């Protein structure tokens, strides 16, 4: 993790930088206009960038790695600091695995970063406890955000109807098929029903003479078990929680059926063996032909571009069939600390990062799905069939989270799903026990 | 030489002189001064231990009786956290996994380390190189080591299954199968722990009097007899020390679980420390994490006492 101050950089203004300032101002202004963000008394202050000042700290799980840091520190932040010369930004990089630790220690020590990037499902917990600033007080409303984003995405940043987080990028999970392998097996389309998916997965699965799996017809192990189950649950018409988020709902008939279907694919149809793949596998089995279909993350496209561009033409996305075919989305939201001494400057940074130019660059760097609907027409989205598919299907996107205690609950999901997949428990027992654990924690 | 004794002069006789100090009082004052100086000398250490060890330990014990989620002030809930821990099957499994992990990694790595230390205490060629090689895992980042082991355990392209396939033994999903995941983690733990134990044993072996071996040789003892009759008993203080630090290290295993298995599959490799981490940083239950830490501390205390009894402490 690196912390660097950007003050020295913004002083090295060049002609190119000035052009970037213009671009940055344009994009930020576009967002501000599109979001209708500045219709408050603070709007007058916004017209004068010199009125915005402060030394900001920012914690981010995105922009990780050398390429991400370079993009943020050499491209994006200089644009921002040149738009607002009296603002400096110090960046603390982390990843999603360690974000909770960073935030926890920040809250306990009273050193909460001014700007924080966090995932879908996190906003509720931190907004409910007063850690995040209410951005609606600063002019951002759900209605203004919905002018540029789908309501399902905007909702992820809301708490009690007010905006606490602004979506920057989305991570979608849906079905992806290798059409070349499907065609070899006599299929010219992706599965339309669950029965068809089972039949195709069965036909596409290959084992060697010793029975060792060489190709899975339907890979379910390369994404996190929790997200895999949620994708199946949502597509089967189930929900994680009741409408008022007071009780778990995944142990419903739809939930049990969704999990049972997954278990059956492992043990009855034997389309995949445990251990065949693992979350965040070095090479996604879809890319090297070890999987014909999979529940996959949208960035498989980016991985394929780097590893084997020839398979790109054969990657075909589809919604997991069920009672309510849908897509699971997570994502990254930008939020402001409630204790920030420079709340206006922090909100300006959030607006800047969520504006079309920086958001597009950030999404492109990670191979993710932009939250802004207008970016559907961008070259990046048009060139990435999986990102394009995700953006075209945001109306059927469903997200995890809901109750403020979600962060304390979600870690229990994967062991429960694994218990069912490993047949240590039945699907019904696994979900019933998990629901009881959830309810106990929700009632605490 | 005759000692002349100065007669005690009454204080009232010469008011310009300071009053004479009685010998006992002088001795007391000197002792007090010396004591004060002693306290002054240990003050930095006492301050350090008090600030960085005692206060956090006491705070942990106090927090273990509270419901504290970092956002709100801690609320006193008595023994509720402890009651919940004893009813929590996941923490029960974590405790059992920790005991199993300790049971296998500590004696296995100690035995191997002792044998290696004895071997590397001989006048072998490349002795220094071998010592370095065996110690290397200890000073290598666990994350880096875990990445190598992830490849070794990979069911499809991994080294272990590759070797097994050569001799016709079917491979396993080492880290994905709950039957194999814990043994796999134990293997990594035992391997990684050998280096430091070997180093301590080598240091202890330097202090074993060579004349003991010479006398045994004269009596006709072979290498194995010498090992069990001289080396093992003479290494007893070192063995006690290694045992204690190994138990503590095994009970505190965390990073290899974090990288290799994330506690899975189905909690089959979760450990007490990992559950403390999950409670604190994933569930924001600092009170619960503190209670789990206190139980971990008590278990370590018990294990240390048992270890001390078993090896009769550091008696030579």
From TrEMBL, chain B:
What is the name listed in the Swiss-Prot or TrEMBL entry for this protein?
Carbohydrate ABC transporter membrane protein 1, CUT1 family
The record's listing under InterPro entries reads: ABC_transporter_permease, MetI-like, MetI-like_sf
Q: Where is the ABC transmembrane type-1 domain?
A: 95-307
Q: Member of which family?
A: Belongs to the binding-protein-dependent transport system permease family.
Give the matching Pfam families.
Answer: BPD_transp_1
Question: What keywords sit in the KW lines?
Answer: Cell membrane, Membrane, Transmembrane, Transmembrane helix, Transport
- Extract the ranges annotated as region (Disordered): 1-26
Which SUPFAM superfamilies is this protein grouped with? MalF N-terminal region-like, MetI-like
Subcellular location, record wording? Cell membrane
């Amino acid at each position: 993790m690196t912390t660097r101050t950007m003050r020295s950089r913004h002083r090295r203004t060049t002609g190119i930088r000035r052009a970037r300032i213009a671009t940055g101002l344009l994009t930020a202004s576009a967002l501000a206009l599109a979001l209708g963000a500045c219709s408050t008394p603070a709007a007058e202050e916004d017209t004068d960038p010199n009125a915005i000042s402060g030394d900001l700290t920012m914690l981010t799980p995105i922009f990780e790695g050398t390429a991400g840091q370079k993009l943020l520190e050499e491209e994006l932040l200089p644009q921002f600091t040149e738009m607002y010369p009296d603002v400096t930004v110090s960046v603390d990089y982390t990843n999603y695995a360690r974000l909770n630790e960073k935030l926890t220690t920040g809250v306990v020590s009273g050193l909460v970063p001014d700007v924080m990037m966090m995932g879908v499902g996190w906003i509720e917990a931190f907004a409910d406890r007063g850690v995040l600033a209410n951005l609606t007080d600063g002019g951002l409303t759900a209605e203004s955000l919905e002018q540029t984003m789908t309501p399902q995405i905007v909702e992820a940043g809301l708490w009690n109807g007010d905006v606490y987080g602004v979506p920057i990028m989305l991570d979608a999970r849906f079905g992806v098929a290798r059409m070349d392998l499907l065609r070899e097996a006599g299929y010219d389309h992706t599965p339309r029903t669950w029965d068809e998916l089972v039949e195709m997965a069965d036909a596409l699965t290959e084992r060697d003479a010793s029975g060792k799996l060489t190709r899975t017809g339907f890979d379910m192990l390369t994404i996190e078990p929790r997200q895999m189950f949620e994708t199946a649950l949502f597509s089967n018409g189930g929900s994680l929680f009741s409408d008022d988020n007071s009780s778990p709902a995944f142990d419903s008939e739809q939930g049990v059926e969704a999990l049972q279907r997954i278990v059956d694919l492992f043990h009855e149809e034997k389309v995949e063996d445990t251990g065949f793949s693992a979350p965040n596998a070095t090479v996604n089995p879809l890319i090297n032909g070890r999987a014909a279909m999979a529940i996959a993350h949208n960035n498989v496209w980016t991985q394929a571009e780097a590893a084997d561009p020839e398979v790109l033409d054969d990657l075909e996305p589809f919604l997991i069939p069920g009672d309510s075919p849908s897509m699971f989305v997570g994502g990254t939201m930008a939020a402001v600390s409630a204790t920030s001494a420079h709340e206006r400057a922090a909100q300006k940074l959030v607006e800047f990062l969520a504006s079309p130019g920086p958001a597009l660059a950030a999404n492109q760097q990670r191979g993710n799905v932009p939250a802004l609907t207008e970016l559907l027409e961008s070259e990046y989205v048009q060139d990435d069939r999986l990102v394009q598919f995700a953006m075209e299907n945001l109306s059927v996107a469903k997200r995890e989270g809901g109750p403020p205690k979600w962060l304390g609950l979600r870690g229990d999901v994967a062991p429960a799903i694994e218990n069912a997949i490993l047949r240590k428990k039945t699907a019904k027992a696994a979900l019933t026990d998990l629901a009881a654990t959830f309810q106990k924690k929700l009632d605490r | 030489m005759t000692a002349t004794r100065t007669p005690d002069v009454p204080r009232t006789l010469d008011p310009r002189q300071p009053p004479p100090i009685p010998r006992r009082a002088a001795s007391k004052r000197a002792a007090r001064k010396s004591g004060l100086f002693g306290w002054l000398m240990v003050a930095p250490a006492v301050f350090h231990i008090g600030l960085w060890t005692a206060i956090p330990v006491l705070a942990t014990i106090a927090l273990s009786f509270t419901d504290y989620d970092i956002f709100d002030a801690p609320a006193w809930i008595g023994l509720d956290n402890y009651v919940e821990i004893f009813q929590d099957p996941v923490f029960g499994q974590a405790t059992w996994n920790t005991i199993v992990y300790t049971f296998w990694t500590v004696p296995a790595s100690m035995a191997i380390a002792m044998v290696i230390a004895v071997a590397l205490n001989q006048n072998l060629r490349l002795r220094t190189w071998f010592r370095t090689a065996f110690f290397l895992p200890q000073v290598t980042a666990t994350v880096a080591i875990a990445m190598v082991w992830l490849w070794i355990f990979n069911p499809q392209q991994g080294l272990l299954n590759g070797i097994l396939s050569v001799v016709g033994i079917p491979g396993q999903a080492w880290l994905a199968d709950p039957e194999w995941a814990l043994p796999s983690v134990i293997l990594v733990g035992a391997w990684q722990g050998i280096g430091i134990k070997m180093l301590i044993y080598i240091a202890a072996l330097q202090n074993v009097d060579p004349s003991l071996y010479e006398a045994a040789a004269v009596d006709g003892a072979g290498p194995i007899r010498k090992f069990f009759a001289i080396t093992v008993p003479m290494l007893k203080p070192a063995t006690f020390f290694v045992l204690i630090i190994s138990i503590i290290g095994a009970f505190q295993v965390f990073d290899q679980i974090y990288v290799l298995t994330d506690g899975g599959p189905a909690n089959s490799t979760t450990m007490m420390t990992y559950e403390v981490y999950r409670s604190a940083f994933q569930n924001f239950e600092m009170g619960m994490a503190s209670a789990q830490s206190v139980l971990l501390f008590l278990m370590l205390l018990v294990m240390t006492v048992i270890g001390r009894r078993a090896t009769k402490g550091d008696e030579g």
